[in-house]
Amino acid sequence: MTEKCIIDVKSKEALEKDTLLFPCFQISNDVQLKDVPSTGEEYLLAVINERRNCQMVTKCKIDCSKFAQNQSEFVKEIPHPKAPDHLKPTIEWQNIQVADFSDIRLYISRLLDKRSDWPQIRKLKVNPVNDVWINFFDNHEPTLSCILGMNYKILDIGLEYLIESLNDIEPGSTIPYNTGQWIYAILACTRQPLLPNTVSILRNLARRCAEVRSHINPEEENSMELVTPFNIFICLVSRYFGQFDLAD
């Protein structure tokens, strides 16, 4: 097979053409500009003609002093308390949690691909009212047939309620087992790529876990057991879902 050299990169001609302004497509001189292009070359000619009427660089004029005066409040991050050194999870432990979580999500993704062959999945309609969610979480287990029927919005609303329920945890206590199960299940079924609202909810989960965790007395005999659920959720949000600034 004979090789053909389109452009010799060492030639002077190639160096002169190595510029952003060099046209990628050559248009024949016979092509006429039309109001409604009917061919590819006519369309390119119309685009080139419109480009000639535009400035090479467009600048946006912003009065920074006026902007600062109208800015009522800048975004402030909620404090993220760090775990005491002897309660802080090791990197090895966090890697294990992420690996196990990844396996679960892979299994769930395969089930979602076969949704038509899985009739147990049912669609749920839950109103975003606290008493409704309390009744729902208290009377249902986070089984796959239950949770995979939820859409993005319902998952986000449910997770928001669960995060809010963490405020009811007494100082020195940990996450109730049923609540922890539901949080983990919702995280496992959270779709990617993440929506901006979902990212915000996940970050709130990590911050709230860190805040409640900070009230656990590290001198307690079972302190490591108490902080484990908080460590898991902070680990997953930060290291699996990419919110690394919240990692332990």
Automatic annotation (TrEMBL):
InterPro entries: GEMIN2, Gemin2/Brr1. The keyword Hydrolase does not apply. It is found in: Cytoplasm. Pfam families: SIP1. Gene3D superfamilies: 1.20.58.1070. One of its GO terms (biological process) is spliceosomal snRNP assembly. One of its GO terms (cellular component) is spliceosomal complex. It comes from the Eukaryota. Keywords: Cytoplasm, mRNA processing, mRNA splicing. Part of the core SMN complex. Belongs to the gemin-2 family. The SMN complex catalyzes the assembly of small nuclear ribonucleoproteins (snRNPs), the building blocks of the spliceosome, and thereby plays an important role in the splicing of cellular pre-mRNAs. This is Gem-associated protein 2. The lineage of its organism: Eukaryota, Metazoa, Ecdysozoa, Arthropoda, Hexapoda.
